[in-house]
Each structure stands twice: as structure tokens, then as C-alpha cells.
Design brief:
Blueprint: E1 6-9, E2 13-16, H1 20-31, E3 36-39, H2 72-83, H3 89-101, E4 106-109, E5 112-120, E6 123-131, E7 136-140, E8 144-147, H4 153-158, E9 162-163, H5 169-172, E10 188-189, E11 192-196, E12 237-238, H6 248-268, E13 277-282, E14 287-288, E15 293-294, H7 302-307, E16 314-318, E17 322-325, E18 340-343, E19 349-352, E20 364-366, H8 375-381, H9 384-403, H10 408-414, H11 416-425, H12 439-443, E21 445-448, E22 471-474, E23 479-496, E24 519-520, H13 522-525, E25 539-544, E26 550-556, E27 563-579, E28 596-604
Parallel strand pairs: 1-7, 2-3, 2-8, 3-4, 8-20, 11-24
Antiparallel strand pairs: 5-6, 6-7, 9-15, 10-12, 10-14, 11-13, 16-19, 17-18, 21-23, 22-28, 23-27, 23-28, 25-26, 25-27
């Protein structure tokens, strides 16, 4: 190592990789008291959603109604909707950075690449990373490790079992399996971002770009991207027939030739309505879909995602379609979607904890596109919304394992109920589980000034399977708990409606499920993206004092989060929640546009 400085760290949990899997692993563990170090090899967080790649966050809710991911994932997306109405990538990057950098219990190492690991007796002792910006080595000695790097770097460094490629049908009896297994994968893509102007913009391609004079030369790929802001150039894809790790630089060079050639085709070969469009950005870092997949105690497969069994150790869920990009990528003909293999899922499927820790390295967990799944199972779990909820599950399970000095396998076998309860308590959705209502609230009398609020105690906090599972109240109408005797209350929990399907949000409807806008036509340039009108913006919680008078114990005038949990300190015989209408001056609205207060939970404890 020469004379370069080495810094030694001793967290409880070391997370490798700062995409959504790694971020939510780190956040979930840290918020439950675990000391975490997050090592990420890029200058910005977010992985494929960062400004370096610019893919939007897709998940179960993008394909199955009412299944938008909640928990920390929805917290981040709402933060972006509120603070970044123009969907600016610089602000988006800063929000992701802020979430990690200023979270208590997380130490963040950016620009730091994991290069080495020491393993003894099937257990990781340490990992070592090089930070390019400081020319410093960082040695991390932790109790647990979570590989969220996507490429599963710790598999290569520790001897953890992994798979690459596509399985034969006979191994898992998968309909989409092959006659014979192979090592081919899905490819990687470069994204294009363009901007519509009020004048003609000319484009001269670089001499080294490919030339596609006709749609046939461009393999008939769908390219009405300028007319449909909800799509993109995902099909500028290569790598499935290469080594998707070792050949990345070669693949990147080819993708750049294709990307500039595609834009040349849009501008200079045929009428694509692109005269006034200006190329704003082309990515130089490929967005990768697939490489190594770890092997855990269970391997999720096509039958599991289609038949959605009730796994006893369910800790996350998915619902994105089986979306298998065939290895030929760009060079396959795109007519009728022949370059893709798809099947829509109509129900969410559970993901067991056994898929999220290593079968042969006892203190290794993983979250992201590298979980224990077959190639076809992975074709639905790989999207970032699902990756995020997997990360929250891994961080939560890690915190429980550390609390009891257990391996992840032991925690899965002995503490799975506690892990599931914490996830549900933290606003995660599990398809086959309901959340336990707080005992103090369950024993109190629940009433409301308007309507029926009994659904607040049904333990389900999503609209799902034809049931609303919420309470439709009115502004300034209270929901009240009454106790038989004075009761000491130390906390409250509120789950509001954040319009998970983004149906009641102003702005371009095709772009509301994405974190940032990839294509920005002139007609949208001055359109900020709205906020869910049904979200509760202002509320007050009041307690009944010893004189029979209601007094405020908590008041919020600018809420923009679905999930609210706060500490209080009051002794009372009754407490009530009141969604508010206007400020005292009655000059500024205290709602986002709805006179209805729709909530899924309100509890005191």
C-alpha cells in the first residue's frame, strides 16, 4: 500500500453501495440505533436514479394499482415532490445526499471503492476500500455486512456463492426458463435527455457515431419519445452477450456510438418532430440491469412471483411485471416488442428474508438487484422501488440481528415476527400481514365527529383488494380517543393518504411516478409538478386537561409526509386529532386542495 494513509472504522453494519438498496438499508438500520458505515464508489447517491444515469424510480405501484412503495421510499419521493417541483437533478441528488449524510448513526464514504476483504471461517472480518478523492485507504471492521453494490463485489472477494445468467427450465420448473442454462444476462443502457426550444436546433453527430438512416437500420426500436414524455430510450441497450462486469468499458463505448447515432436519426433522418429539440444530456455511465446474483437460503423464482405464496419470513414485496430484456439488446428487432419478454403481474408477491442473506457467509446480507433469485424472478425484483423496500427490510433485519447478537439466519428463524412488526410499524407493506394496533389505542374508545372511523384499527394502511382501509373525515372534524382513566401518552402515529397512484396531482400525468423528468417539451417548461391534493397539510392534536378544557399538544402547519410518528408527554382522559382548514388570518390555505381528510391510521400510545 506504500505510504498512503489508512483509516480504520468500527461500525456495527457496513453497507457497500449507495443506490436505493444501500441507502434504505443504511437508513433503516441507523434509525433503529445501529452504527452504520456506507461505502459508495460514486460522488452522488441513488444508483440508477442519480444524475449520472437518470432512470426514474419504478416499482410495484407502476404496474399494480395502490401498490406504490411506502416507508422510507415514499418519504424520499414526497420530499422530492415538495422541494423539487421542477424535478431538477441537482436538487434530487442533494436530497439523497442529505438523507444519508445528516442521518445520525451513518458515516458516509463517497468516491470509495471496495477493493478487498478478509474472511475467516465463513465470516467476513473486514473490507477495504480506496477513496479516490483523498487517496486514502479505508478499512472497515464490522459485525455485519450488506452488499448493495449491484455487482456483488463481496461475492468475488469473500467466496460467497452467486449465480450469473439464465437457468434451465427444469431446475425450478419455470415457464420462461431455457432448455439449457447459459451465462447471458440483461444488458445496460445509456439515457438521453433532451429539451424543446422555440427555435430550430441543428445537430452534427460525432464522426465516430453510428449512422441509422432508416427505422430498419435502427432495428425498429420504438422512438416516439418526443411525443410521449412517459417513455425513454431504454432500448439503447447492450451487454447481455458480454461479461456485464469485465466488459463494461467496451460496452459503454458502443452504447455512446449508438446513443449519438439515435439522436442523429431523430434529428436528421426522417420526420420525428425533433426540429426544435436540443440534446441536453447523454449519460456516460451505463445503467446496469444484471450481473451477479447471490445465493441465499432460498432462491425466488417465476412460480413465486406469479403465484405469490405466503412466505412465513416475508419482509418485502414486489409487483413490477416480469420484464426480461433479452441479451441481444439493441441489435434485436424491436417490432412488437420482440426484444423483450414480459408478463404482467396482477397481485403483489412477498419476498422472504431467506433471499436476503448469504447461504455460506454467515454475516453477509444483500439488497438490490443482487438478491437470491433466478434470472426470471430477478426480472421483476430488479426495479428500484422494489430494491428500496428490500433495503429497508435488510436494514431492519440487521438491526434486530445485532440487538440479539445473532447471525441473519438465526434472526430469520427466531425473530422474524419482531422484524415484521417493526417493518409494518415503520409504514412498510407486507401482502400477507397486518400491523398490530397499539394496545393503548386498542383499549380506548375511538369516535369521530363525522363518518365511520373504525377502519383506523384494521391494521391495513393501503387501499388494496377493493378495500379503502381508511377514514374519510372532514376538515375541522375531530377523531377522538377516550380513556377510562387518566392515561400517560408518550407518542402518536399518523398515516395520511399521499395519493400513491398520483391521480390527483397537477402537472404532466405521465411523469408523476418518476423522480425526475427525462424529456422536457416546451409546453411543460413552465409547469411545476403539483403535490397530492389529498395529503393532510395542517393538523392539531389536543388533549383534555384536568379542567375539562382541550389544549394543543402538537400542531403542524406544513406537513408533506404520509407517515408521521412523534413523541409527546401528556396525562389525559381524552385526546383528539383535528385536520385544519385555514390559518388564523384565513389568507393561506392549510390544505393541498381537498376539503376531505383521508387517513389510514391515527393512534396514541
Amino acid at each position: 500500500m506504500g505510504n498512503m494513509k489508512t483509516v480504520i472504522h468500527h461500525p456495527q453494519l457496513c453497507v457497500i453501495g449507495g443506490g436505493f438498496g444501500g441507502m434504505l438499508t443504511a437508513l433503516a438500520a441507523a434509525r433503529h440505533g445501529t452504527k452504520v458505515l456506507l461505502m459508495h464508489d460514486r460522488p452522488v447517491l441513488g444508483g440508477n436514479a442519480s444524475s449520472e444515469i437518470r432512470m426514474w424510480v419504478s416499482g410495484a405501484g407502476s404496474r399494480v394499482r395502490n401498490l406504490q412503495e411506502t416507508g422510507i421510499m415514499e418519504e424520499i419521493l414526497l420530499e422530492n415532490m415538495k422541494r423539487n417541483p421542477e424535478r431538477n437533478f441537482a436538487i434530487w441528488d442533494s436530497i439523497l445526499y442529505e438523507k444519508i449524510r445528516f442521518e445520525e448513526n451513518i458515516e458516509l464514504l463517497l468516491n470509495c471503492t471496495c477493493c478487498d476483504a478478509v474472511t475467516e471461517d465463513s465470516r467476513i472480518i473486514s473490507v477495504r476500500g480506496f477513496q479516490l478523492t483523498t487517496y486514502t485507504w479505508h478499512q472497515v471492521e464490522a459485525e455485519l455486512y450488506a452488499d448493495c453494490s449491484g455487482d456483488s463485489i463481496l461475492a468475488e472477494l469473500t467466496g460467497a456463492e452467486f449465480r450469473v445468467g439464465r437457468e434451465a427450465a427444469e431446475e425450478f420448473h419455470e415457464e420462461f426458463g431455457l432448455n439449457e442454462a447459459d451465462a447471458r444476462t440483461m444488458g445496460m443502457s445509456l439515457m438521453i435527455q433532451a429539451r424543446e426550444t422555440d427555435h430550430v436546433c441543428h445537430f452534427t453527430p460525432p464522426a465516430w457515431a453510428y449512422t441509422f438512416r432508416t427505422d430498419e437500420e435502427m432495428k425498429n426500436k420504438p422512438h416516439r419519445c418526443l411525443q410521449n414524455i412517459g417513455t425513454n430510450f431504454y432500448w439503447i441497450e447492450l451487454g447481455g452477450e458480454y461479461d456485464s462486469i469485465r466488459d463494461t468499458e467496451i460496452i459503454r463505448d458502443e452504447l455512446l456510438k449508438i446513443a449519438f447515432g439515435v439522436w442523429d436519426h431523430m434529428k436528421n433522418h426522417g420526420d420525428h418532430g425533433a426540429d426544435n429539440w436540443e440534446l441536453e444530456w447523454i449519460g456516460f455511465l451505463p445503467g446496469k440491469r444484471e450481473s451477479r446474483r447471490y445465493v441465499g437460503d432460498y432462491i425466488l423464482n417465476q412460480n413465486d412471483v406469479e403465484q405469490h405464496p405466503d412466505f412465513p419470513d416475508e419482509v418485502a414485496y414486489g409487483g413490477w411485471q416480469i420484464d426480461n430484456h433479452l441479451p441481444g439488446g439493441f441489435f434485436m428487432d424491436g417490432k412488437s416488442g420482440a426484444h423483450l419478454q414480459k408478463r404482467r403481474l396482477t397481485e403483489p408477491y412477498g419476498i422472504p428474508l431467506r433471499c436476503l442473506y448469504s447461504r455460506n457467509i454467515e454475516n453477509l446480507m444483500f439488497a438490490g438487484r443482487n438478491i437470491s433469485a433466478t434470472h426470471i424472478g430477478f426480472a421483476t425484483t430488479r426495479v428500484m422501488g422494489t430494491v428500496g423496500v428490500i433495503g429497508q427490510a435488510v436494514g431492519t433485519a440487521a438491526s434486530v440481528a445485532l440487538k440479539y447478537h445473532m447471525t441473519p439466519r438465526q434472526a430469520c428463524r427466531e425473530k422474524i415476527g419482531e422484524i415484521q412488526d417493526i417493518l409494518l410499524e415503520d409504514d412498510c407493506f407486507l401482502p400477507h400481514r397486518r400491523r398490530r394496533i397499539w394496545e393503548t389505542s386498542r383499549q380506548a374508545r375511538l369516535s369521530c365527529d363525522y363518518g365511520d372511523c373504525s377502519a383506523l384499527h384494521n391494521g391495513m394502511e393501503h387501499r388494496i383488494w377493493g378495500n379503502d382501509n381508511g377514514y374519510f373525515g372532514r376538515i375541522n372534524q375531530a377523531v377522538t380517543y377516550t380513556f377510562d382513566a387518566p392515561t400517560h401518552l408518550t407518542r402518536f402515529r399518523l398515516v395520511a393518504d399521499s395519493d400513491l397512484d398520483r391521480e390527483y396531482v397537477e402537472g404532466n400525468p405521465d411523469a408523476l411516478n418518476i423522480s425526475t423528468v427525462l424529456m422536457r417539451p416546451l409546453s411543460y417548461n413552465r409547469t411545476t409538478f403539483g403535490f397530492p391534493k389529498c395529503m393532510i397539510k395542517s393538523y392539531r392534536i389536543e388533549a383534555l386537561d384536568e379542567n375539562g378544557q382541550w389544549r394543543s399538544i402538537c400542531e403542524e402547519m406544513d406537513n408533506y409526509q404520509r407517515f408521521i410518528r412523534k413523541e409527546i408527554d401528556v396525562v389525559t382522559k381524552a385526546v383528539r386529532f383535528i385536520p385544519l382548514s385555514t390559518y388564523a388570518s384565513e389568507a393561506v390555505s392549510e390544505t393541498y386542495g381537498s376539503a376531505t381528510a383521508h387517513i389510514f391510521a391515527f393512534e396514541m400510545g
